[in-house]
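User: Second chain of the day. Same drill as before.
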Amino acid sequence: MMDKKNEQGNQKLTAFMNDYSIWFSQVVRAAFYPDVAEKELSGPPRIDTIPEIIERIGSDSVLSRLKEMQGHLHQLAAQMISTPNIPKISDFDMFWQTYEGFSNQIQRIEKDSLLSDFGVDIKTGLRSSAVMIVELERELERRARRGQPFSIAILRIDDEELRTSEAALEKTSFAIGKTIRSFDDAYVSGDGEFIISLKHSDTNGGLRFVSRFNQALKFDLGADFTVSSCVAEPLPGDDVPSLLVNIRADLDSITGTGKGVTGQYEEISPLNRFLQKLEENPSEEEKKEDKI
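Assistant: Same format as last time:
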């Protein structure tokens, strides 16, 4: 049974998001119908000023990200309202996506409370593997409904000895957090591997993220280790667990050519993938025949 403090926190969260639904409508009205709408919108309070919500969240890393997303959301709203013309569709899409991402993060708080880790990896502050598959499947379903692109990037620390190093994991997760957008998600999947859910991004967008990440890791943080990656754009109907297995297989092939490399996942049939594995790993009998 939920205790009284959690119940109060959930009530505050519900009221908070109801206020944001009203605010969202007011922003859209002000942006597209400026002659009949008020330009001065106060909006709901900052999330880090509501004690019940702070206590309900109970995680500094989650609160910090929500605060950052909220600030970015209000910045985008101010930019749309301040322009004398109707906003460009790209600007509105960015505002809408950020609002949707912020709302989804708030909704997760209640759902994640059933998990012992709150859906967050304690060491890195990123999302945990406990919620990864369900959330990736949900994003793929959203793509099928709306036709919006969606890509996945798998990042893996090259040096096997560093895959359990707290310092290496901390630098990698910090570089990820610094370079993903506020509405994207990043998961710690174990053994030095990270999976990134890049919403509203095709494969090229995924590759641009990897480029930003590598720049941050090497030049901003001065990391002396490398991370290789593989980017994929799932298609509606894909089985997410099977897709991740195949992306990992492509990542294994990519890392066979060097360290710190980036590749793009190629969708091939199960039969061709099986034949490809046979070519890469011939049987003992085939090896003997080759020698003859």
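The chain has a mean pLDDT of 83.

User: Great, on to the next one.
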